[in-house]
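Model the whole thing, not chain by chain.
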Amino acid sequence: MTTQGTAGVVETPAAAPAAPPGRTRRKARRTLRARLARDWPLLAMTAPAAALLLVFHYVPTLGNVIAFQDYNPFVGNDPIDAFLHSEWIGFGNFEALFRDPLFWGAVRNTLAITAFQLVFFFPLPILLAILLNSLVSGRLRGLVQSVVYLPHFFSWVLVVTFFVQMLGGAGLLAQQMRQAGLQPWNVMTNPDGFIVLVTAEAVWKDIGWGAIVFLAALAAIDPNLYEAAAADGAGRWRRLWHITLPGLRPVIVLLLIMRLGDALSVGFEQFILQRDAVGRNAAEVLDTFVYYQAIATQQWGLGAAAGLFKAVVGLALILTANHVAHRLGEQGVYSKS
Amino acid sequence: MKPSLPGASTDRRTLLRLIGLGATATLGGSALAACSKEAGSKGTATKADAIRSVLPAHKPAVLLKPDVPGEGPIPDGYLSYPRQLADAVTEQPGRGGPAIRTMSPWWGPTPPTLGKNSYLAAINAKLGVDVDPSLQDGNTYADKLNAMLGARDVPDILSVPNWEVDKIARFSDAVKALFEDLTDHLKGDAAAAYPYLAALPTGAWEYSVWGGRLAAVPFPTDGPFAWALFHRKDLFDRAGLAAPTSPDELYELGKKATDPAKGVWAFGSVFDMVQQLFGCQQTWRKRPDGGLEHKFENPAFAAALEFTAKLFADGLVHPDTVASKGADEKQLFKAGKILMYQDGLGAWQGMQSEQTQVLPSFDMQPLPLFGAGGSQPLIWGSEKPIFFTFIKKGLGKDRVEELLRVLNWCAAPFGSREFELREFGVEGKHFTRAADGSPAATELGRKEMGAQYTHIGGRMPVKVRSADTPNYVQDYIGYYQKNIGLMEKDLFAGIKLELPANWSKILQPTDDKILDILRGRRPLTDLEAVRKEFLTTGGEEGRAFFEKALSDNGR
């Protein structure tokens, strides 16, 4: 594993403003007190966010100890006590997890879906953003944009129901085909085509939403570049290739790395809703596995172990992808200096 | 969605399918390496005799003689609403303590909360103390409950459906840590202080004992059957279809009734009912040699599976049922898009009453039961209470007594003013009285009421005729009386079981595999392999556990 010994992901780019050269030495000698006196409004403004981070991210992280316990929430006198009194079982939960062929089946499905969606879903919002950006009429663009991002706000239940009503065995398409004397297609219940179906649903739901970031990045590209290129005789495709795409590259790389960090999360409701239709072999992903095998059966420790596994894999992927991005001369998600 | 009350059994269907406890099983971690231990409970069983000594002394409290008397677990039926109501509770239960926070399940839109709800205000004024209910969606109740129990943050009064109890690992630990021991308040003659709690059937109380102590007030079932196979009798009659008397006739009927071009299919989900028609047990049955036999080992299960798989393969099941968990079969059934589906009997009166307004000829009835190959069907069911009501631990003796008096008020029987207020609200506001004296809910009543008091107090179930469902009481009680003899005996009645983790773990994966066969994704011959996998990865451990529980109790 190539984690390249970085200091860790929390290392944010230092935001200290570059002080004018002449005053540097004097400032460095300021006492802590003096700095507090100067900076307290800034610190006060950061405090709520930091407290939020601490309370809802760092403290709950400690709860991961149950991955190494036979956790029983009802021993002892209070919830904290339950952590202390539950029996330590070392790596028992991890062993049970890694021994379970169902777990590996779920991991395989999850990775397959991630890979498929990286190729067939990830580029689409970029294309949509470029397309929208090339529309001259602001009103038309606004309209199209609203129409394509609206589905993002629909719940999965609604999206799946919509697909069933359109493409299902009693849906619009099937009834039309029956009336035309044709045998309806088996779109919603075909395990082999499931990966295409879920990707299509995801595209329908989220393509507009995904395009927002790219639209913002496109707006930041200096229009002078296009004018200059056009004056030099560059056609539409050359401008796309040499100005638009390079301008988008940092954002694309950033989002790609973040998506890789989420490689083991492909959603939950979408899969649980369609599970019966195509069967477990096609629809079991890591999150549904955890739900059925850890939460529904209250094997909290096993669930925490699966969660830790997911986090470790995600971290490794982020670090690797970031490293590769650096090698290719990109900024990536973070850098050491 | 119209709530199916008071029998929450309807919605158990959705829930079971969602969480996957319906049928059963696969691979789990088996032998583990020596350096680390295996997590998860090995299961426990509390003996039945330990239970009997802590039960309340039973004292019936019936105000009105029933027109159609039920028997045992079958509720009493009344064909008219009484003109004269009695006061059931003379002493005000509340002593003005702080507001009582409660949580109970509800299947429908959430009613307004305390302070914005005139129904709550009316009853709280009677009680002399504020009840502040939190209603949670019954279909996702487990999510809320799990978080609440894990955080040990429970309300003063908590209603827990029995099917949730079965799913919560180490529930007896939770009971001990979080809920008040009610034994000293309700054991034997002490229960006489709460006459309507003492009137609840002893069979229901037996299930309310954890670790040898009385821990909850039961909400008795209004009918023990888990399922019925409902059919649209009005549509059957119009098409000249006769009720089938054998599986073959059922299949032929399905073929005749299905017409995809019109968007009509014969069946929704029916697999649980088909198993019962074929005479298959719900989980275990006794072998002649005394051991237990799982249903997968019963040839009747294979036959039921083959039959139902054929329904799917031949396209007799509605595509929405095939395609997603979200299929709303109630809607399809109401619209006549499916003619038969399985549901809890609790769904009956609500749907009949609602649909009569839309289509006066609407008539849903359970399909008369028949067996396969000349044998009798075996009907699944149990007398387990629908809900258990728990009281938070450590509130002090006076407060616990106040809460029990409130529960006693909430359990007031049919024919009392308290019953009417609880079930129908205030006359002229939440209901109007029909010519025959029976109450009919108004818009406000439907909006403000969500069984806030009914679901926490264990009322005696009754069936009452209403103007829009004139035949319901006779039909309902008649169906039970006719078929109660076919009900499977609960081998484990009175024994509190905490299932081993390895057993719980294999249920969903096995369910998935059976489903694969049912839907034709795997051949029928794979059943043999599925059964083997099931038995080796936790099934045998489960068998040993259940057999030991029986032998420990001398059964």
